[in-house]
Amino acid sequence: MRIAELAERSGVSAASIKWYVSEGLLPAGERTGYNQTSYDDDHLARLRLIRSLIEVGGLSVAAAKDVLAAADDPDHPFGNTLGVAQASLPRVAAPPSAESLRRVADVARRQGWTVHDGNPGLVAAAAVLDRYLALGRDDLAAVLPAYARAVELVAEADIDTISKTLDAGPATAAQTVVVGTVLGDALLAGLRRMAQESESVRRFGTGSPS
Amino acid sequence: MRIAELAERSGVSAASIKWYVSEGLLPAGERTGYNQTSYDDDHLARLRLIRSLIEVGGLSVAAAKDVLAAADDPDHPFGNTLGVAQASLPRVAAPPSAESLRRVADVARRQGWTVHDGNPGLVAAAAVLDRYLALGRDDLAAVLPAYARAVELVAEADIDTISKTLDAGPATAAQTVVVGTVLGDALLAGLRRMAQESESVRRFGTGSPS
């Protein structure tokens, strides 16, 4: 199909499509003549994935590019789960403190988790604790044990879903990791607001404690 | 203090400080003479909060502005919890489908939650379901019941924390909502990656199912 049809079917403007190609998120179309390029259904599927990561997952274009590159890595037929996870977390500007890393690792040990030292989530979680400390709000870290129990339920469901797609081929499994990880964060954030309202109503009789 | 000292103590460049003032995230300093402005500890605290939302919470400057405006709202002494939540979720471009809204509302009802129709989390979660459908991956919605159980644990811990700061005054309580909501999403995302690695090791013997 021509770029105009690709734009119409994907809902992405021709200018954005050209930009995604130049930024390396989308493979170039096939040149079929002077000033004419042809795109296929793979381009359409890829564009839908890019839009999902950016518009619903809230990723920047740069982060979406990193996530897709990790999922495309041919050395990892099902997508490099940890690589995708790393790329989809906000980049941590400075290494977190040893104290915060130790506190998060302690929580993991108490849950009986097997997590290697370089796990990007460990670094991201420790960076949040550092920020609580810098804001003088160490008390907020009291949520850690409850959050750890919660994400255990989440991770079990996540790995269940990945397991079920192992037979569907590498493209499907990689998509599961990308979509399930990035959009899964957005799904959790949405459900969390719903549960917060409900819990606030239960305790204070109103959706807001004010 | 002068802007140079504020920049040094906050780790934010003078140019960024001026930009945050012009964008309305940070109150202007006090003019103390020709071409000279004075800032105080409130500016420093506010800058640390802004940096946390953007660098660790992964918010855009525009989203951070919305979150701070909701928390500053004088009609809501403890911050407008739902307003803050809404501002900190990625904006949903188009209204989600009635079918996805119904599916998410069904999950909430099965959990016994009290959630009003306009809850921003409900809209955000339904938008994710729509995206799963558009990508031909309706199977990913199978995680919904497990995610709902998980966020119930999260919300209980969140409201516990807010309850404990109700006596500390409106500024502290508003900060709890802002920091706890936005950085809490980042903390959950980090812990989720750790639990995913652990669950993957438990089932596949490796951190990645490839």
Could you walk me through the main structural features you see in this protein, from its secondary elements to its overall organization?
Chains A, B: GO terms for molecular function: DNA binding; DNA-binding transcription factor activity. Chains A, B: This is MerR HTH family regulatory protein. Chains A, B: Pfam families: MerR_1. The structure is a homodimer of 210-residue chains. Chain A is 66% helix and 3% strand. With 210 residues, chain A is mainly α. In chain A, strands 1-2 form a two-stranded antiparallel sheet. The longest helix of chain A has 35 residues. Chain A starts with a helix and ends in a 6-residue tail after the last helix. The relative contact order of chain A is 0.09. The mean pLDDT of chain A is 85. At the A-B interface, helix 3, helix 5, helix 6, helix 7 and helix 8 of A face helix 3, helix 5, helix 6, helix 7 and helix 8 of B.
